[in-house]
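agent> fetching stored inputs for the 6-O-phosphono-beta-D-glucopyranose docking request
agent> found them:
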Amino acid sequence: MTDRTTVIAIFGVTGDLARRKLIPALYSNFIKRRLPQRLHIVGVGRRDWTDETLIEHARQSLREFAAAQFNEGDWRHFQSCLSYSKVNLPHTETYQNLKDHLEALDGGASNRLYYLSVAPEFYEDVVTNLGRLDMARENGAGRAGARGQSPFWRRIVIEKPFGYDLATAQSLNKAVHAVFTESQVYRIDHYLGKETAQNILFMRFANTIFEPIWNRSHISNVQVTVAETVDVGTRAGYYDKSGVMRDMVQNHLLQLLSLIAMEPPSAFDGHALRNEKVKVLQAARAVRLCDTVRAQYDGYRGADGVPPDSDTPTYVALRLFIDNWRWKDIPFYLRSGKALQSKTTQVNIQFKRPPNSIFELAESGDPSRNMLSICIQPDEGMHMTIQAKVPDEQIAKSVDMELHYEDAFLADELPDAYERLILDAINGDAALFIRSDEIESAWKIVDPIIEGWEKDRAAPPMQIYRKGSWGPCAADELLEREEHIWRISCFDDGK
Ligand code: BG6
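agent> prediction call returned; pasting tokens
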């Protein structure tokens, strides 16, 4: 832990993300004594708030979202780190207030993390204005006053969505790089901060048993399911412009896929890890429109704020291939949707059938396969389906070898993804953040699909699915072509 002063400036502190996630994550790290001791947290917003308003807001946020961790003793210290600065994001002149505010706190001699939790249309404004006021430059050792010391760092964390398509992502990268070098930039995908997503790397590269079978010779297909029960709710304004491809696939699903499909990195660091993840995305074969299913839940067009003729999908299923030696011709099936039957995120790896079956099977269907299920959430864990002899009978039945985090780690509650990610950004560890080439490679996969849906007459039509179902039948048919079926593990009510 550093003994230097660290300032965290949260742009958009009055918003929902700060209230639900960022303030609780900072507090949790604070009470675990993981944050720098000399710390200032500056809330930045457009509203006419005072320090007191922010402190009251933070207290409410913790009462609501971190009640179990809240205690008056820690809170007294935590709240003394908080202050507020008013900035009107598009207006350059108001950034001087912020600059003065920060300099009054640290005399210019501190590490600084700028956290962008504002609407994406303001990302460029904030970055450019920080540049104009010279707030991104990392100060040399001279300012630190001690010879040989590393400079004070300046870092920026940028929330998703990063761009609306490839062109806008490239232009945003350009604007960001005009002010910050890539090593100063931390693009967040909160899925990478989830314990179970991180564990994909540990499972694959801290064990020897998986690697020899982790390839096209042994694996039949890989399925990534990110299912949500919530519908669009009050977010129609944002969601209808994005849809499930931009909201979920471009980021969360492709990130999970990269972790599953990447080659072993030479080290667990941002450089080595992200090199391998980018290679996977770059090896993705262009997805054919006939390998896509798009759908809306019944009633979406009637939801508040959704145009009655909206063509925005709330569900997608895709078949994707990675053209490299490890994965050539092995289907990766991705699906995600809102208003589905259960909230679950899981990766299911289906292994090939035994070459010759000598046992009778207890179930019909597709039970003879081994399957490794990585349950990202809820009931975090891993399950391995194997075939076992049914006692007193001469038949084989699928049974599960199960790892539940709750039992293995006695963890009632896992740390929130933001806790890890904020800490990593402060510690300068970019391994779980998205690099510029990674974000652009992901858009290159997603853009042609969205464009095809909008412009190509041969594109599969929009399907409608029942709320509370598992999505449209067309998604099942997508797999049936190769005699595959969607698998759901980790709990009983799945399909
Ligand atoms: C966000 C999406 O990135 O992820 C939301 O914008 C989605 O639409 C959410 O609901 C899902 O995150 P989690 O952690 O609840 O699975």
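agent> quick read of the result: The longest strand covers residues 395-404.
agent> awaiting further instructions
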